[in-house]
Design a protein that fits this description.
Layout: E1 2-3, E2 5-8, H1 24-37, E3 41-43, H2 51-63, E4 68-74, H3 77-87, E5 93-100, H4 103-110, H5 114-131, E6 135-140, H6 147-160, E7 164-169, H7 176-193, E8 198-203, H8 210-219, E9 224-227, H9 241-250, H10 252-255, E10 257-258, H11 266-277, E11 294-295, H12 298-306, E12 325-326, H13 334-343, H14 350-366, H15 372-381, E13 393-401, E14 408-415, E15 418-425, H16 429-441, E16 446-454, E17 463-471, E18 474-482, H17 485-503
Parallel strand pairs: 1-10, 2-3, 2-9, 3-4, 4-5, 5-6, 6-7, 7-8, 8-9, 11-12
Antiparallel strand pairs: 13-14, 14-15, 16-17, 17-18
Helix pairs in contact: 1-2, 1-11, 2-3, 3-5, 5-6, 6-7, 7-8, 8-9, 16-17
This protein binds 3-methyl-2-oxobutanoic acid and zinc ion.
Length: about 500
Amino acid sequence: MKKIYVFDTTLRDGEQVPGAKLNLIEKVQIAKQLEKLNVDFMEVGFPSSSQGDFEAVKTIAKEVKNVAITGLGRAVKEDIDIIYDSLKDAENPLIHIVLGSSNIHMSKKFKKSPEQILQMGVDAVKYAKKYMPQVQYSLEDASRSDFEYIWQTIEGVVNAGATIVNVPDTVGFALPETFGEVIYKINDRLMNLNPEVLLSVHCHNDTGLGTANTLAAVRNGANKVECTINGIGERAGNTSLEEVVMGIQLHPDYYNGYTDINTKQIYETSRMVSGIMGLDVQVNKAITGENAFAHSSGIHQDGLLKSKDVYEIFEPETIGAPPMEIILTARSGKHAFEYVSKALGYKIPEEQLMPLHKKFLAMADEKKEIYYNDIINLLDKENVTKEKNIELWELLEFQMSINSNLPSATVKLKKGEEVVITSESGTGAVDALYSAIIKGVNLPIQLNDYRINSLSRGKESLGKATVEIRYNHKTYNGKAIEKDVMKASALALVNGINKMLLSN
Ligand code: KIV
Ligand code: ZN
């Protein structure tokens, strides 16, 4: 089995998303998380483009020691000098040079002949080699380039000392089958030329094929993949790291390979990048979306309760995500209803299951979201016996005083017989509300993420609040849908806390 090297470019290509520019502290925070994820390379900026990028590369090169660090530049001496300066303190530095190889780029962007461009590339690699042993050469727009010209360029730059050649699908134009064939032919020739050189690919997602093209390349001989967390990047983005890594992990024999990624850090990295960059992860995003492990259809819930592998190809814990969720909806069958009731401590006698399930369905038809407390209230009203005394928090009331200087909140919460009333102020309304709830439940809960989305248009629209909390090194999600966004926010947090209590 061969090792597939993972090159993360979240902090360079990913950061090219409009509006996602990061400051130095944020870049360092993400770089340290990428180190925990155990990527092999991280590209953290384009040092000649701005003083900010230069500082970011320089600081990360100093602070992150277990990953090869690189900065990108054009095939010109000035850029290479600046990359070298920015990487001086790196333990394992790599100079990354990019130059177009397609006729479109050569004639329209550079207004130079293919021979001139080839010479520029070779000269740039030779120049970079004087500074550092590790040099990567990227043939920009390779997927729209003439194959023999690509090969001549690779031959030239490898003979000049390039240690990695990168074949990008810069505009997301490639198809898995044809891109795979190109990589196969390059690999075949590269093996004869210099088998030590890494063959890398870098795909964009303009037609949604970034992951498919990258995996096709791996299958055909590529041993290095360039990706970003959550697939962020220019236009429709780059190849998503988590999708490629899990693709290889789920099919090691097919790809004859493995990566060294610490998959348990995937979820945390995804949420950190999303939170810091302000770019939401689409709810149905493969691997890391909020719904990636949520099951709501009755047939699926029933199958899962019989055996998880019926509908789950890997456990959410593999990527450090919160455990699989059975979401009770009007489509949930009696087994799912019974399962959640049992988790809440109730034992439903066999003869009561059907009528109770009917009542549950009537309630679910009316409500957009079913909370644990709704099930508890239903079961208590019907005098179902409790075999375990599991007590969850219920939000009885809350009151907000919103003024621009010091918003404050008072909440009334109940757990079993215990009723608490707490007040807090905060920097904003949600901060005050959450501080009051956390004070009320009196647990060292850390709030990782909070989001509010509108589910429809207009001022009457429903607000969906989503929170992510951390307690005792584990992550839990809570969610609530209400017309009043503050109520949705409060219930989402209480819901997350209850999930945490239930799983503990
Ligand atoms: O998309 C691209 O071609 C790039 C190169 C710098 C690898 O980002
Ligand atoms: Zn790119």
